[in-house]
TrEMBL record:
Residues 2-95 form the Formamidopyrimidine-DNA glycosylase catalytic domain. This is Endonuclease. One of its GO terms (molecular function) is endonuclease activity. The keyword Lyase applies. It catalyses: Hydrolysis of DNA containing ring-opened 7-methylguanine residues, releasing 2,6-diamino-4-hydroxy-5-(N-methyl)formamidopyrimidine. SUPFAM superfamilies: N-terminal domain of MutM-like DNA repair proteins (SSF81624), S13-like H2TH domain (SSF46946). Belongs to the FPG family. It comes from Massilia agilis. It comes from the Bacteria. Pfam families: Fapy_DNA_glyco (PF01149), H2TH (PF06831).
């Protein structure tokens, strides 16, 4: 599943299409009359978290990659695309296993760019404020909350929690202030490291926790479980990742 940094790469790979007209549109999406796209120029390409936004003069196409979405630039997979766009220069954009939606209105009114960990408008103070407003939220759920950390996915979640030594079942309200700050800071820091490693095709070589079986700090087996409301896979060490929970009230 593409996380926020992967969509930044997609935007970079397809930036040459800005200003070009769409000459053909196909795919099995029913979200839009695809003939409506033909002849329209691409005004801009933007990302918000896991959303890829194709701005046209008459509308905005939102591609949401969900859990299993993927894309190809100037090539195709051996399966029908959800949406495929052919451009003036002979290039193409193809999207698979994703959600396609038409948005109406100004993007700056539809999206809170300050919540996107990859955005120049990212607001860490705003993220801390949202976290403090949800003290009962689990750390593993908080990092996957796209209203707080847009673009963070399961890989980044596992790596950030391991890096800051916080157990995924810790509650946000029980985190000491330094740990809360570290959670917010590392969500962005790791996302940009993810971006650079993925560009160099060495991302998996830098994983310390995600999909791993042994803790590289304690040299004992990791625990693996589907935790939180999201039920996403967590890999964590019971020794070096401290579990912060509110004190019991008898």
């Amino acid at each position: 599943m593409p996380e926020g940094p992967s969509l930044v790469i997609l935007k970079e790979q397809s930036r040459r299409f800005v200003g070009q007209r769409i000459v053909h549109a196909e795919g099995n999406t029913w979200a839009i009359d695809k003939t409506r796209l033909v002849g329209q120029p691409i005004v801009s390409l933007r990302t918000w978290g896991k959303h890829f936004l194709i701005e046209l003069p008459e509308l905005v196409l939102r591609i949401h990659f969900l859990l299993f979405g993927s894309y190809r630039v100037d090539e195709r997979r051996d399966r029908p695309a959800r949406l495929g766009l052919a451009m003036e220069d002979g290039g193409e954009l193809n999207f698979y296993a994703c959600s396609v939606k038409v948005l109406e209105g100004e993007l700056d009114q539809l999206y809170d760019w300050s919540a996107d960990v990859m955005s120049d408008q990212w607001d860490p103070a705003g993220a801390r404020k949202k976290l403090r407003a949800a003290p009962g939220m689990l750390a593993c759920d908080a990092l996957l909350d796209q209203d707080i950390f847009s673009g963070v996915g399961n890989i980044i979640k596992n790596e950030v929690l391991f890096r800051i030594r916080v157990h995924p079942l810790s509650t946000v309200g029980a985190l000491p202030a330094p740990k809360l700050r570290a959670l917010v800071e590392q969500a962005r820091t790791y996302s940009f490291e993810f971006l650079e490693w993925k560009k160099q095709f060495v991302l998996k070589q830098h994983w310390l926790a995600h999909t791993k079986s042994i803790c590289p700090r304690c040299h004992i087996p990791f625990h693996k479980a589907n935790l939180g409301h999201s039920r996403r896979r967590s890999f964590y060490c019971e020794r070096c990742q401290k579990r912060y929970n509110p004190p019991r009230v008898d």
